[in-house]
Design goal:
six-stranded parallel sheet; single chain; Dehydroquinate synthase-like, alpha domain; 8 strands; globular; alpha/beta; about 350 residues; 2 domains; Rossmann fold; two-stranded antiparallel ribbon
Length: about 350
């Protein structure tokens, strides 16, 4: 396969970055559409409109319902077409970002991502995930290109709930292991090409940064004040993680979201918490020593990340539920990106060990 690496055109991060983004928006057009749910619009809507006004950009808002289903994307897309936007600004957490991506994809215009929480690495990627009305993963869709601009205001991030920040850490810390498995298996990255050395290096840097500074960054979120540790961990969780997985590849951790989103309790857990737990499952068929898994688990506990299915809301998982998780996991293409062929029985056995 040809090596392929993809990324946003611009990445801007820092306290107050939303107020400094005007010059980056101007080349994208004079009519913008801000897609977000109502709480996010209440949080940053006027601020974004004011910044746009300094460049003579007309900014209209489109309210996202909060659940990213195919029907919701079609509804938003129909409304957006009537607004004749030249670019879309997608704001919020993972769902809000993905909703804006879906609208931009339907319109065929560039997207700018404005995360209000560092809960995942969606802001940098071209992917967006669609769910059914029961919040089960339906499919992953792809924009034709990555976002034109990513603006991460770390003071906004610091003010978001700590639970969302830990989800971002959970989503990011797994990438080192998924990318390594994808490369080892010779699997494709998310561009359909061979992984690059750059992607592997970024995934590794993401892990070491989070292990070194994750706890200090979480303390900054608790204080609701951006500092150097927070800046480093946000860069790792959004930029390094996003570029690493998309140009490196995914494996068991993200495949397991198909199964975890299909059973009680865990279906309602945040994406980053689901994949963080799934890493503990992936490490077993990797053949990792119990001491290594226990070390990762101890780090998780220090941050409040899940180490058991019960922590995801699935207490006393039955054999049938473990089987459903495993069978759902096997439906994801990423499950093939592993050093050996895995079966549903392998996944169920590893999940049963980490269920306790």
């Amino acid at each position: 396969m040809t090596r392929i690496y993809g990324s946003p055109s611009r990445y801007v991060q820092g306290a107050g970055a939303l107020d400094d983004m005007a010059s980056f928006l101007a080349p994208l057009g004079q009519r913008a559409l801000l897609v977000a749910d109502q709480p996010v619009l209440d949080l940053i809507g006027r601020r974004v409109a004011a910044v746009c006004a300094t460049q003579g950009i007309e900014c209209q808002s489109l309210v996202f319902s909060g659940e990213i289903t195919p029907e919701e994307i079609e509804r938003l897309g129909g409304l957006a077409r009537a607004m004749s936007a030249q670019f879309v600004m997608a704001a919020g957490g993972g769902k809000g970002i993905d909703a804006g991506k879906g609208v931009a994809h339907r319109l065929g215009v560039p997207v700018v991502t404005l995360p209000t929480a560092a809960s995942n690495d969606a802001p940098t990627s071209k992917l967006f995930v669609l769910y059914d009305h029961n919040h089960r993963v339906l499919r992953v869709e792809h924009m034709t290109s990555n976002p034109a601009l990513v603006v991460v205001d770390t003071q906004v991030i610091a003010a978001a709930p700590a639970r969302l920040f830990t989800a971002g850490i959970g989503d990011a810390i797994v990438k080192k292991f998924e990318v390594a498995q994808a490369i080892g298996a010779g699997g494709p990255n998310l561009f359909g090409g061979q992984a690059t050395l750059t992607a592997q290096a970024l995934a590794d840097l993401c892990y070491t940064t989070i292990r070194a500074k994750g706890e200090a960054a979480l303390q900054a979120v608790t204080r609701k004040q951006a500092d150097a540790a927070l800046e480093d961990v946000v860069e790792a969780a959004v930029l390094h993680s996003g570029l690493g997985f998309e140009s490196g590849g995914l494996s068991v951790c993200h495949a397991m979201t198909r199964g975890l989103s299909a059973v009680r309790g865990s279906r309602d857990a945040l994406h980053g918490h689901q994949v963080a737990y799934a890493l503990l499952v992936q490490l077993t068929p990797e053949g990792r020593a119990r001491e290594f898994i226990d070390d990762v688990s101890a780090f998780y506990r220090g941050l409040g990340l899940p180490t058991r299915l019960a922590d995801l809301g699935l207490a006393d998982a039955s054999a049938d539920e473990l089987r459903a998780i495993a069978e759902g996991t096997m439906t994801a293409a990423y499950i093939k990106n592993f050093q050996r062929t895995l079966t549903a029985a392998d996944v169920a056995a590893a999940a049963s060990v980490e269920a306790r």
